[in-house]
């Protein structure tokens, strides 16, 4: 039997870790911020690469399924922003909490939901992570609270979760995410006030991808320094296309919160390749050139790949193998998502309440009744 | 005899003592002892962690209450009046009521929103709206509208123990009213089941269905008419009404109303809110759809608040709220006498 050489180099040839320079964060009301260099091990690099690539391919597959009309309704894609959710997740503990808005597929995956369950939720099948009841914007798992469709409403919710952490002295924090569009919502400022007043362990994170739907930040905000908008709350502005920068900034921010100093604001400067949602081609309010420029100069996955290859942490072939494995995983998940049956119609009435004896729910007319089971 | 205020206070105290996850937040609930003194003494007893004064930020603190409930706390969120809940209604409906359903049961939201609802006395249009119909419209919420001290204590305790979002619509004018409380009602485990109406007065001629303060008006009307009936006994005609106190708007105990209508053949609904799309409208629609329709001897009649924003001058305000005389008039109309 012949041994197939899968990689052309022995793994012992690779470095086990390397030091990288990361952009300095702009600071607001902070004496010092995260460092400008950090160490990444080979294992970490491969992990981050695989996770980001998985999210990228999952979103592209969702795009495809949407165009085939297998996914319907709202579908807000995250490709381009992968470094944000991956960088955040690797800097926190599984027992920490995360809540975000509607551009949620990446977070759902990184918080532990399998790809097949995410895609099946998008295609509205019973194997979906919310059994087909929620859809693209309403995905949840342990310590992950969605998945929220009303812009900005998730921010007070996140502070409430932080309140609960503090109530029981759990040493847990809540990452509460919102976009540049949501950053102008009044309830966010109400939340800043209460979080600072009560020193809630809440990390407010603005994912600034430069556009609300089609309204650029300059046209929506009198001040686009989102990391300063917390006013009396310290803040930092982070390069959201660099997974290491996000990681270090998140470690810094969560450390700040855990020490009992109160909330902190992080602005992640990032970019989405797709339009706001699948019904937006994304080119009426920005140029193709701009999108192309970000892709060629700042793509988070390419950035990581180049770093790893140039520092001898991995070979191109090895990363290509990961790409192949990821594609396969996504294909299998898509297969599941397109063949799993839809939820039974009887499920329509279920889950209205929690821990409640069964009762009846009215259908479109008085003779159609559904049973509601928790 | 216990006032509604004291009954609510007892309920909060008992539930906070029983379960350390229960906490109270809202404007002036702590050091002011509550804008209407419902939370009197609780801050002194339980401290800052369990009784929290909030800034004037309804949308913010209602959302914070919902977020805390999604994890492992059991917040009681007070709206100084439900008029201000409109600022926060998105959090009540979209974040609280719908989450269990959207997550297919993965996330529960055991939050209680409570506060005074409906008209008070001379507080003007912006402070007098009844929200029973608005909140009662939404699946995923339980909506309560108690009347007596027993109702208030038992239902508040039940809502705090319920694992789902509950909107408890109290009434400012009832806070100072004393009611008899049975021995049983004074126990620490006294609960009034959510979703069950109560027959406050037995009768045979008309069913009067109501919730919150108007239940009291119905009882008065029934007493007045019974007296008249006694006078009319010469014509061998006396009036006996069944007064049903709905107690819960959602889920509504329509079976209790149907059973009563089958007995009395006449229905009058009484509420403080506006007529269009109101609680009475829903009761009438459901009676029409059910078996009780065949037992009606006359169309059902609604007595409601006047269809105008609430005016200030006393004579105007008095004519915008269903009074005892309006109920009596409606009863006589439906009985055709």
Automatic annotation (TrEMBL), chain A:
A GO term from the CC aspect: mitochondrial matrix
UniProt KW keywords: Carbohydrate metabolism, Glucose metabolism, Magnesium, Metal-binding, Mitochondrion, Oxidoreductase, Phosphoprotein, Pyruvate, Thiamine pyrophosphate, Transit peptide
Top-level taxon: Eukaryota
All copies of domain Dehydrogenase E1 component, residue ranges: 50-345
Cofactor: Mg(2+); thiamine diphosphate
GO BP terms, alphabetized: glucose metabolic process; pyruvate decarboxylation to acetyl-CoA
EC code: 1.2.4.1
Locations listed in the record: Mitochondrion matrix
Transmembrane segments: none
Listed Pfam families: E1_dh
Catalyses which reaction(s): N(6)-[(R)-lipoyl]-L-lysyl-[protein] + pyruvate + H(+) = N(6)-[(R)-S(8)-acetyldihydrolipoyl]-L-lysyl-[protein] + CO2
GO molecular function, one term: metal ion binding
Function, in words: The pyruvate dehydrogenase complex catalyzes the overall conversion of pyruvate to acetyl-CoA and CO(2), and thereby links the glycolytic pathway to the tricarboxylic cycle.
NCBIfam families: PDH_E1_alph_y
Protein name: Pyruvate dehydrogenase E1 component subunit alpha
Species this chain originates from: Calypte anna
From TrEMBL, chain B:
Subunit structure as annotated in this protein's UniProt entry: Heterotetramer of two PDHA1 and two PDHB subunits. The heterotetramer interacts with DLAT, and is part of the multimeric pyruvate dehydrogenase complex that contains multiple copies of pyruvate dehydrogenase (E1), dihydrolipoamide acetyltransferase (DLAT, E2) and lipoamide dehydrogenase (DLD, E3). These subunits are bound to an inner core composed of about 48 DLAT and 12 PDHX molecules. Interacts with DLAT.
Subcellular location: Mitochondrion
Entry's Gene Ontology molecular function annotations: metal ion binding; pyruvate dehydrogenase (acetyl-transferring) activity
Keywords of the record: Carbohydrate metabolism, Glucose metabolism, Metal-binding, Mitochondrion, Oxidoreductase, Potassium, Pyruvate, Thiamine pyrophosphate, Transit peptide
One term under GO cellular component: mitochondrion
Gene3D superfamilies hit by this protein: 3.40.50.920, 3.40.50.970
Pfam families xref list: Transket_pyr, Transketolase_C
Domain of life: Eukaryota
SUPFAM superfamilies (UniProt xref): Thiamin diphosphate-binding fold (THDP-binding), TK C-terminal domain-like
Function according to Swiss-Prot or TrEMBL: The pyruvate dehydrogenase complex catalyzes the overall conversion of pyruvate to acetyl-CoA and CO(2), and thereby links the glycolytic pathway to the tricarboxylic cycle. The pyruvate dehydrogenase complex catalyzes the overall conversion of pyruvate to acetyl-CoA and CO2.
Catalytic activity: N(6)-[(R)-lipoyl]-L-lysyl-[protein] + pyruvate + H(+) = N(6)-[(R)-S(8)-acetyldihydrolipoyl]-L-lysyl-[protein] + CO2
The UniProt record lists the keyword Mitochondrion: yes
Protein name: Pyruvate dehydrogenase E1 component subunit beta
UniProt record, GO biological process: glucose metabolic process; pyruvate decarboxylation to acetyl-CoA
């Amino acid at each position: 039997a012949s041994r197939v050489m899968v990689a052309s180099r022995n793994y012992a040839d690779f470095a086990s870790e390397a030091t990288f320079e990361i952009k300095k964060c702009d600071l607001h009301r902070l004496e010092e911020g995260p460092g400008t260099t950090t160490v990444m091990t080979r294992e970490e690099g491969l992990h981050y690469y695989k996770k980001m690539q998985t999210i990228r391919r999952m979103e592209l597959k969702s795009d495809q399924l949407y165009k085939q009309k297998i996914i319907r309704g709202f579908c807000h894609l995250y490709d381009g922003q992968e470094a944000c959710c991956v960088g955040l997740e690797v800097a926190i503990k599984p027992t920490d909490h995360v809540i975000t808005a509607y551009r949620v597929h990446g977070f759902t995956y990184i918080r532990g939901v399998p790809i097949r369950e995410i895609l099946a939720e998008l295609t509205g099948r019973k194997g979906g992570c919310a059994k087909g009841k929620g859809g693209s914007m309403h995905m949840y798992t342990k310590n992950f609270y969605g998945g929220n469709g009303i812009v900005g409403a998730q921010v007070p919710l996140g502070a409430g979760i932080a309140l609960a952490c503090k109530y029981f002295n759990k040493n847990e924090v809540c990452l509460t995410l919102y976009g540049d569009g949501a950053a102008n919502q009044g309830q966010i400022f109400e939340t800043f006030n209460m979080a600072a007043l009560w020193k809630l362990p809440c990390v407010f994170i603005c994912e600034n991808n430069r556009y609300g739907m089609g309204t650029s930040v300059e046209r929506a905000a009198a001040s686009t320094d989102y990391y300063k908008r917390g006013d009396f709350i310290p803040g930092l502005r982070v390069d959201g296309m660099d997974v290491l920068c996000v990681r270090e900034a998140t470690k810094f921010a969560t450390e700040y919160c855990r020490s009992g100093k109160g909330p902190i604001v992080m602005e992640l400067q990032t970019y989405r390749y797709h339009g706001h949602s699948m019904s937006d081609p994304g080119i009426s309010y920005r140029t193709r050139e701009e999108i192309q420029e970000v892709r060629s100069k700042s793509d988070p996955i390419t950035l990581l790949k180049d770093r790893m290859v140039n520092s001898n942490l991995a070979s191109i072939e090895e990363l290509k193998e990961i790409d192949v494995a990821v594609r396969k995983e996504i294909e299998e998940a898509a297969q599941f998502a397109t063949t799993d049956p839809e939820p039974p119609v009887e499920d329509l009435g279920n889950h209205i309440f929690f821990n409640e004896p069964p009762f009846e729910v009215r259908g479109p007319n008085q003779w159609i009744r559904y049973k509601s089971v928790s | 005899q216990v006032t509604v205020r004291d009954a609510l206070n007892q309920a909060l105290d008992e539930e906070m003592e029983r379960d350390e996850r229960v906490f109270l937040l809202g404007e002036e609930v702590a050091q002011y002892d509550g804008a209407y003194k419902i939370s009197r003494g609780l801050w002194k007893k339980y401290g800052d962690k369990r009784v929290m004064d909030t800034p004037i930020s309804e949308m913010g603190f209602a959302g914070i209450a919902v977020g805390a409930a999604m994890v492992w706390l059991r917040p009681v969120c007070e709206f100084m009046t439900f008029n201000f809940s409109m600022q926060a209604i998105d959090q009540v409906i979209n974040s609280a009521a719908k989450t269990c359903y959207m997550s297919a049961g993965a996330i529960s939201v055991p939050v209680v929103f409570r506060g005074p609802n409906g008209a008070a006395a001379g507080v003007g249009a912006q402070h007098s709206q009844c929200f029973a119909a608005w909140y009662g419209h939404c699946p995923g919420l339980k909506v309560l509208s108690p009347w007596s001290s027993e109702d208030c204590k038992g239902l508040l305790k039940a809502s705090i123990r319920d694992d789902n979002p509950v909107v408890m619509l109290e009434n400012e004018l009832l806070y100072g009213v004393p009611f008899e409380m049975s021995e049983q009602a004074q126990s620490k485990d006294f609960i009034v089941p959510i979703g069950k109406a109560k027959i406050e007065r037995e009768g045979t001629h008309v069913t009067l269905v109501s919730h919150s303060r108007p239940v009291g008006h119905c009882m008065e009307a029934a007493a007045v008419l019974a007296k008249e009936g006694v006078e009319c006994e010469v014509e061998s005609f006396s009036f006996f009404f069944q007064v049903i106190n709905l107690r819960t708007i959602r889920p509504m105990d329509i079976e209790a109303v149907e059973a009563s209508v089958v007995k009395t053949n006449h229905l009058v609904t009484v509420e403080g809110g506006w007529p269009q799309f109101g609680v009475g409208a829903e009761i009438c629609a459901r009676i029409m759809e059910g078996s009780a329709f065949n037992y009606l001897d006359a169309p059902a009649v609604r007595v409601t608040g006047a269809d105008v924003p609430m005016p200030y001058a006393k004579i105007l305000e008095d004519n915008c709220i269903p009074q005892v005389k309006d109920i009596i008039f409606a009863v006589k109309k439906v009985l055709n006498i």
